[in-house]
TrEMBL record:
It holds the Pfam family SBP_bac_1. Gene3D superfamilies: Periplasmic binding protein-like II (3.40.190.10). Keywords: Signal, Transport. This is ABC transporter substrate-binding protein. GO terms for molecular function: maltose binding. PROSITE patterns: PROKAR_LIPOPROTEIN. The keyword Signal applies. Residues 1-24 form the signal peptide. GO terms for cellular component: ATP-binding cassette (ABC) transporter complex, substrate-binding subunit-containing. It comes from Microcella pacifica. One of its GO terms (biological process) is maltose transport.
């Protein structure tokens, strides 16, 4: 696709926004008091900055609800900084914030700290029109605690000039990688294999696609399968050794992966949707015009399972305007106008019917299908510690620094400890 389609335009903006977020400076501290009748929406990220989609959403609400306006309190663009600023107010029981923009992995922590209120009473307003993965990320202990705002998902990029169709299994992908290496001298698959959160996401996508999981549906029981985890980790190690995974896989983050694929060094890539537009705009790239996107492979032939990212909106337990705040978060999740604003600012919407608007755009249609089965990382209160433990054990095993079975057994023990206090 040489031309830049709807997805290309949207995802180009996403790439710019990501770059801006890296260099942005500090944001103002929260105001001590809101105006009478006003609700304060505390959310980070580049779209809360001047000209961003979150301000446009607030303006739309204010036009429709002039007696109960919303004001965006722009938190730091980096997730850690935004969470820290919210936590400072919430730990003090402050009522400065009414609506809290949460990263999808913060839900459990905020619930366990009694920082947000249940939204179970508005579940019916959200179900059916909101993608199931984001709904799952908004839940904890079988109860709904937030309303999804926007989402993201991992996808497979592949070269349509090198393979007739996207590989459905990892066996097919590795066979294609071997053939392409012999004929074209190119590397195979590149993803996010460096020792950071990206490795955890990539490992979980493999584990989920093999039928594994960390916890049961309400996160009350560990269901981590040691044998399956061992096999998945050994697969990564073997794929690095035999060349199915590109050299440098275990040091690559998102940007390194994109550069490898865009420069023609790798035939397959796991990444977020953003690189698509950059490739479509790069006329010098060997991948320009010959890049396809598809669900991630699995071990069974069924479509793989993608990890999701994004923002959810919760209502502060300390808000003095909880009823209005609830109305706002439901409206933001279900309003076609709001979700269109997000889509036009290169954010994947959570509103299922909106994907019908992109019926002629194969990339957005593919993303809509992938998002139906995408999964969030567990919204556990201890997620930061869980992620670090996965990096300590599973990353080391995937790189030959410890036994894959030992790593899996240690991971199972650690997960059980998260339930035992």
């Amino acid at each position: 696709m040489k031309q830049q389609n709807t997805a290309g335009r949207l995802l180009a903006a996403a790439a710019v926004a990501t770059a801006v977020s890296v260099v942005a400076g500090c944001t103002p501290a929260p105001a001590d008091n809101a105006e009478e009748g006003e609700i304060v929406w505390a959310i980070g990220g580049p779209r809360s900055q001047p000209g961003g989609a979150h301000l446009s959403i607030a303006e739309l609400w204010n036009e429709e609800n002039p007696d109960t306006p919303v004001r965006v309190e722009a938190l730091p663009e980096a997730a850690d900084g935004a969470r820290e600023q919210q936590a400072l107010v919430l730990q003090a029981g402050g009522s400065e914030f009414d609506v809290l923009g949460l990263d999808v992995i913060w839900t459990g922590e905020y619930v366990e700290n009694d920082w947000i209120v249940s939204l179970e009473d508005v579940r019916a307003d959200l179900e059916g029109v909101t993608l199931p993965g984001p709904m799952e990320s908004s839940s904890w202990g079988g109860e709904l605690w937030a309303a999804p705002l926007n989402t993201n998902a991992g996808i497979l990029y592949y070269r349509t000039d090198l393979v007739d169709e996207a590989p459905r299994t990892w066996t097919e992908l590795c066979a294609a990688a071997e053939s392409i290496a012999a004929e074209e001298g190119m590397d195979g698959f590149i993803g996010q294999g460096a020792r950071y959160e990206g490795f955890v996401v990539n490992w979980l996508e493999l584990f989920w696609s093999a039928g594994g999981d960390l916890y049961n549906s309400d996160q009350s029981e560990v269901v981590f399968d040691v044998d399956l985890a061992t096999e998945v980790t050994e697969f990564i190690a073997e794929s690095v050794d035999d060349g199915c995974f590109a050299p440098g896989y275990n040091t690559a983050m998102e940007e390194e992966s994109r550069i490898a694929f865009q420069s023609g060094d790798a035939a397959f890539m796991r990444n977020w949707p953003g690189p698509y537009a950059l490739i479509a705009d790069d006329s010098e790239s060997p991948a320009n015009g010959v890049t396809g996107v598809a669900p991630l492979p699995s071990f069974t032939g069924e479509p793989g399972v993608s990890a999701i990212g994004g923002f959810n909106n919760a209502v502060s337990a300390f808000s003095e305007r909880q009823d209005i705040a609830k109305d706002f978060v439901v409206w933001a999740a279900t309003s076609v106008e709001v979700q269109t604003i997000l889509a036009e600012d290169a954010v994947l919407p959570v509103h299922v019917p909106l994907y019908d608007e992109f019926a002629d755009d194969p990339v957005m249609q593919q993303l809509g299908e992938i998002l139906q089965d995408a999964k969030p990382r567990p919204a556990a209160p201890q997620w930061a510690e869980i992620s670090l433990e996965m990096q300590r054990t599973l990353f080391e095993a995937a790189n030959g620094q410890m036994s894959a079975r030992d790593a899996a057994e240690q991971m199972r023990t650690f997960l059980e400890g998260t339930l035992n206090g």
